[in-house]
Amino acid sequence: MASYLESIQDPEKSIKETGLSGLLILFEPISSKLSLRQRQFMTWELLEKMKIKFEGEHHIPPTSDDFSFDFLGETWFINFSSEAYQQRISRKIDVFVVLAVQAFSMSDAFFESDNEKKAKAQSMVRSLAQKFDHMPVHPGLGPIIGKTDKPTPMKLSYYIGDKNDDPSFEPWKYQSLEGLPIYIDKELLTDKNIEQDLAFLQQYKQLEVINIEDLELLRQKLIFVSRQKVLYDNVHSLILSPEGHIQSLVDLLYAFEEVGQ
User: Fold this and answer.
1) Contact 82, 39 (CB under 8 A)
2) 131-143 pLDDT per residue, tens
3) Domain of life here (predicted)?
4) What is this structure's pTM?
5) Every domain of the chain and the residues it spans
6) What is residue 230's three-state secondary structure?
């Protein structure tokens, strides 16, 4: 990102000649079974760790509607795309994950800080996306510039849903469960597909298979994956469900839960 900024801020280059450019960040494939939300959470964790390592905490917390991702003195536009999208074809790129980022200062320079010019370009891009996707643009992208006095929070544009009734994913509302021991409900192993996922996951994580009745014997903090929720103070209970955060055991590579759970 630093090299990208050096390139676009080169005084010998005219933005009118070079045009708008962005930076594509490709992620090495892990597994095609990793769900859309897990991939989104994974990329946000990377951005967060990078921000904190080099600059410290955000001046405005991500939970605020005024939050936008700032780094290296720039506010960044973030576009997440992945093979994991199924309905939103404009974001379904045949790669594991790609983040397209662009410094907002570049957009200002190209459009000469003219909101009418920005709105015209925005309308054109959205019209093309809508035709390509056969659905309206996601509400997380907000209205066209100048169409409202209260714009949609920028952060909601980072991880838009696959369908319009899927809300933008907000990874800052969740906490990573990295580092906790993982226990798998023995009842899950009646499914051969789950056995295959378990074998894959064991290449990266240390796992234990346990009868649900034996959980009460354990005292340390742990993750327990089952098809039902269990209530123990030391257990982070994750439900394996096609509609949930953990859609396959592979998702345990980046297990997370809502803050406060």
Assistant:
1) yes
2) 999 999 999 999 8
3) Bacteria
4) 0.90
5) 2-172, 177-258
6) coil
